[in-house]
Amino acid sequence: MSDTSKRGPLAGIRVLDCTGVIVGPMSTLLLAEQGADVIKVEPPEGDLMRKLGGKAPADAPGMSPKFMHFNRNKRSIVLDLKSEEGREVIQRLAETSDVFVSNMRPRALKALGLTAEALLALNPRMVHCTIAGFATGGPYDGAPAYDTIIQGLSGVAACLETVLGEPRFAPFVLTDHIVGIIAAQAICAALVARASTGEGQAIEVPMFENAAAFVLSEHLGQRTFDPQGSFGDPRIMTPDARPMPTKDGYICVSANTDPQARGFFTAIGRPELMEDPRFRNVSARLANVAEYFALRAESLRAKTTAEWVELLRRHDVPAMPYHRLETLLEDPQLRGSGVLTQEEGEEHMLGLRHANRFAGSGLPESRRAPRQGAQTAEILAEIGYGAEDRARLMGDAA
Amino acid sequence: MSDTSKRGPLAGIRVLDCTGVIVGPMSTLLLAEQGADVIKVEPPEGDLMRKLGGKAPADAPGMSPKFMHFNRNKRSIVLDLKSEEGREVIQRLAETSDVFVSNMRPRALKALGLTAEALLALNPRMVHCTIAGFATGGPYDGAPAYDTIIQGLSGVAACLETVLGEPRFAPFVLTDHIVGIIAAQAICAALVARASTGEGQAIEVPMFENAAAFVLSEHLGQRTFDPQGSFGDPRIMTPDARPMPTKDGYICVSANTDPQARGFFTAIGRPELMEDPRFRNVSARLANVAEYFALRAESLRAKTTAEWVELLRRHDVPAMPYHRLETLLEDPQLRGSGVLTQEEGEEHMLGLRHANRFAGSGLPESRRAPRQGAQTAEILAEIGYGAEDRARLMGDAA
């Protein structure tokens, strides 16, 4: 559906991407999908996610499913940053890049000569983004950060404990994934600043602090005002808030406002409940929330999900089926949106695409994630390395 | 810790914010924290979240905790967009705004004269962002979207079913919250484009499609390549992946690489396990993952969380305590970062701050969320309404 004759809002922006695994690759994925030229720098052993991201096809080593979904539209160059020549290449790349992103720890950045200080001296227009586990200067500064450690520390797992009765992780690399998006936003904000000041800058995006702010903005609750106040949004924390069983599956229904409640009572054939003192307005239903949930749960078992969705919609009650991943793939809205694609010329290769639409800039054509080092020669040539140097560098890094 | 003598990377950007509840306010929160002048347009009854976001203090009606945490640094103007005069005001605001954001449905936008077509005709440099439930043109186009409905439809709840055995929602307004961040990123990308083309544009950010891409990028798994392939990242979907009990609480430990495993075995006083064929390298531990988890769970019960964190860190094994929200508030890293603040001159008013650091632009001083309509007069004066007109408009909208 996107206009692929256009090049995307970030066309002309070059990103030097020294990230790996999820948080960093997620940030540069958004930039790449929006038209930036993302140069993914991989060590000779490749991004860890090539191996850890599931099983790669036999004829495409290193192309694990998770690697593919977080690295499309990027170019890959393999460099040994521990060698002097590797460092020279990356400095040349830094001179012509608008953005540098890494999720290395401060010590590693320093050892490789890739600190903000060093790179901004080479290229004062650069936006230098460090995705850190923890904000510098604090007691955890430089400690390793993994998604589960951040989920446990930042209160994500605690919120699951509140509803489940035991600490659990959300079944996503949730904080990696979210903080990657946050980093892409921060990078673009710094590019907006550069457009008016002409100057680049160093930015720092800490995982723990962003994750804690994410959790607390939702669930600081009454503790905000009162040292004895309760945490948590009770509308979310109630164990009753869940997909509800129907005759053949589950459904998600929202019937909170008066018109929605009236529509719901009519749809289940009990319009008189709108006059019931327990249910007649928002505050009555809140005061009797357990009964209201029980009533809904009981009624919904009577028909199939498809029957309910149609009936409830006719009464202007928001309702959608509950999808397992299997049925999600068949969802007609998702299929039609172009976000999920089955690539041409392939038996079965499911791909994902950028979900947002830019009417003016369009989006660039979507390209598969690169094989490891697929563009090493091409990129070296672009920054002026002749055939002989390229051969030597590629021999070194292989 | 942020340099408040500076104004933030988005200083000079004006945002006309016609959003409510969470997804839209989250997008403009990021812009406001980064220095944009966000004008929050509220209907006479106020943003719904003022009432639904928890209990407001007796002396500050409408200032619910959730409203406060998603609306700081914004200015509030109350306008009746259904009146002709209200529409005139918003058109004048549109003429001088760089960004327009709404999460209204297409029909409502059209009725109020706030479509991209209408506003870009007034102001061709504007970035017009619609946060939609579903991408336009699909079968669900225009259907109402609530976070739980999107969680159920997009596979978020399905991933919880995989690990819990029954469909559950993640205990956050997860898709609202994430898509709000995604919208802020898309808006900034369009502002980057404008800096080079001089032109604004319409952008559309659909909740369902973004949520589905979020889920599938992590869990499409082997189904990517094989129509019979399994969904899900097994490292995340295993029920063993959870915070582990200690003598006095829980701990999160990452011991996946060989050096981490060696450190862990040494810390628990069983260095010989590194030679055990079940555990001696990454693939052995993966093949015996249940035994490896059981061993870890059993060992960790022997000491307190604090003892383990210290001991494991000494052996370079990533480990952090599991925080409930209560203890998260006391975390020394969070306290020191400035992300969580206790406001001056208040008995107990906990606030949140932007977690990212911009070395060049700094961040603007943080301001509390506005009372409803607090800046109506000020904003009307800025766009040229005299005292008499202001009084009339404010009487109309009150």
From TrEMBL, chains A, B:
Top-level taxon in the UniProt lineage: Bacteria
Keyword match Transferase: yes
Keywords recorded for this protein, A-Z: Transferase
Database matches in Pfam families: CoA_transf_3 (PF02515)
A Gene Ontology molecular function term of the record: transferase activity
InterPro entries per record: CoA-transferase_III_domain, CoA-Trfase_fam_III
Protein name per its UniProtKB record: CaiB/BaiF CoA transferase family protein
Organism name: Falsiroseomonas tokyonensis
